[in-house]
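Regression test case RT-17, inverse folding.

Input:
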């Protein structure tokens, strides 16, 4: 504790009000703990302010624009379709983001969580100091949940500025660029790339590895690649970005491709090569909290760190950087503080890429199942055999189930198609509950729905497909 500063005592303190922190705080309060939450910048964290939510708003706006401009297949023609970008931005910010973030603040208050605005730093194993402008206050705590999130990685040769931007810059561009180069064809690069490609920008994506969106199976990402190409976008794989030079309102990128040095020019360069945990910002060493060799906080299955009174959740702990993972870990940590036996189990953790088509995966892929020593088979049902998808004119995709050979237990799912993120939910439940393909096949699915494709895939897995 700092001399001359009277410490306020807290029971459970949560640091960071993102999808990890605010959910942990509410659950801890529901379990009867006296909870305070410290937030330095914005309620809802990266996800609600500069991540999941604003990106999905722009994806929707861009999709509506493109559909309205090209309705010919439905026998409709449209002229003079225009976009007022400032109104699009205003809608995204003031009607979507603001609505969601003010909801978080309201929920915290409703659950009697004390809100402390400021930046928290550990002073020792059970003390934090919260700094806000010229003021600072010391607090001791019985338990803490650290949920202070992550930030974009800035690479050498690409200093962030007006023309070289990160994902937050990409969400808030002052104009729709004529040309945009994206370094990193991962989840953010492909999602925001699809926004601008739909708005008519000439998008070039430089991806360092050999596959576009490498965290999803190749037969899924190929479909997205095809859609990008149909929008005039260029995707260059095995392309390592080397440096950038800003020339007035243009910027030139140098990259290496198949041993050759090449350049490409654009109005903006968006760098989306991953995110790093904010574990270097809170004096973890003073609290006795150990990190792994990649800078993530080491935790046990309840989220407990090497300091048993401090739990860590979300983007600062190992595993995929996903909002729903952060929230899940937050609930487990809150329960652990209340003495419950809850532990994390990532067996059915879903992951989605909101491109066209959407890509969704949960549980095992064929390869990961084999690596885990499971004897599995895969069954793929194409959306071409699904009436709803055909009527939507969005049928280039499939549902793939990964099931055990012996007793058809569902251990994985991959979906490429319209609303894959939502269609996946019943299979995630099946994996979580240890159900088999029969459970899905025997469940009556409304017709015509996209979800029928999972029933069809399950029937195919059982050797009795109706629609293929
Ligand atoms: P954060 O959301 O980063 O929240 C941490 C909070 O802690 C912040 O509010 C920060 O201000 C605060 N903080 C940090 N340090 C301190 C301190 N010292 N004192 C007080 N407060 C502090 N994930 C998905 O699952 N689905 C998506 O569709 C998706 N889309 C995304 C799109 C983009 C463009 C980006 C960038 C990310 C996206 N993500 C998505 C990832 C998702 O945003 C993160 O996984 C999620 O926000 C992590 O939650 P968190 O609570 O761990 O941290
Ligand atoms: P990412 O890890 O998904 O993709 C980064 C890509 O950049 C990789 O494909 C990598 O090979 C490539 N790369 C790295 N260095 C490079 C270089 N020098 N030149 C060219 N390519 C290079 O990271 P991204 O897209 O920044 O997203 C960060 C995190 O945010 C992800 O882990 C993801 O989980 C989360 N997120 C989740 C979303 C969702 O759930 N829908 C949406 C957006 C983000």
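Golden output:
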């Amino acid at each position: 504790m700092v001399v001359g500063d009277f410490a306020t005592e807290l029971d459970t303190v949560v640091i960071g009000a993102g999808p990890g922190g605010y959910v942990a705080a509410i659950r801890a309060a529901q379990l009867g703990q006296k909870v305070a939450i410290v937030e330095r910048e914005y309620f809802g964290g990266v996800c609600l302010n500069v991540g999941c939510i604003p990106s999905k708003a722009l994806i929707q706006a861009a999709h509506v624009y493109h559909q309205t401009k090209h309705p010919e297949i439905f026998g409709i023609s449209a002229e003079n379709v225009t976009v007022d970008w400032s109104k699009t931005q205003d809608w995204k910010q003031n009607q979507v983001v603001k609505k969601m973030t003010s909801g978080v603040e309201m929920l915290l208050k409703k659950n009697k969580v004390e809100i402390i605005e400021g930046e928290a730093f550990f002073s020792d194993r059970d003390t934090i100091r919260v700094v806000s402008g010229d003021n600072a206050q010391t607090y001791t705590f019985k338990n803490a949940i650290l949920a202070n999130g992550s930030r974009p990685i800035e690479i050498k040769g690409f200093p962030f500025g007006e023309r070289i931007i990160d994902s937050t810059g990409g969400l808030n561009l002052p104009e729709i660029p004529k040309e945009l180069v994206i370094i990193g064809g991962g989840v953010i690069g492909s999602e925001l790339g699809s926004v601008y490609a739909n708005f008519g920008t000439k998008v070039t994506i430089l991806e360092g590895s050999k596959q576009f969106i490498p965290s999803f199976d190749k037969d899924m990402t190929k479909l997205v690649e095809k859609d990008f190409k149909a929008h005039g976008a260029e995707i260059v794989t095995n392309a390592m970005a080397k440096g950038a030079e800003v020339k007035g309102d243009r910027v030139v990128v140098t990259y290496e491709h198949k041993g050759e040095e090449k350049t490409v020019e654009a109005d903006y360069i968006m760098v989306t090569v991953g995110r790093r945990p904010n574990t270097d910002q809170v004096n973890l060493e003073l609290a006795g909290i150990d990190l792994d060799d990649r800078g993530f906080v080491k935790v046990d299955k309840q989220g407990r760190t090497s300091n048993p009174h401090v739990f860590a959740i979300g983007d600062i702990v190992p595993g995929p950087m996903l909002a729903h993972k952060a929230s899940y870990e937050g609930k487990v940590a809150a329960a652990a503080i209340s003495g419950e036996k809850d532990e994390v189990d990532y067996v059915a953790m879903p992951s989605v890429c909101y491109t066209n088509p959407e890509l969704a995966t949960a549980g095992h892929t064929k390869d990961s199942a084999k690596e885990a020593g499971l004897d599995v088979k895969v069954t793929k049902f194409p959306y071409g055999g699904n009436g709803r998808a055909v009527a939507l004119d969005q049928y280039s995709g499939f549902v793939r189930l990964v099931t055990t050979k012996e007793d058809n237990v569902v251990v994985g799912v991959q979906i490429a198609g319209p609303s894959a993120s939502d269609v996946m939910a019943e299979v995630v439940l099946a994996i979580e509950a240890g159900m088999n393909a029969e459970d899905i096949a025997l469940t009556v699915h409304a017709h015509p729905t996209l979800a029928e494709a999972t029933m069809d895939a399950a029937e195919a897995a059982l050797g009795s497909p109706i629609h293929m």
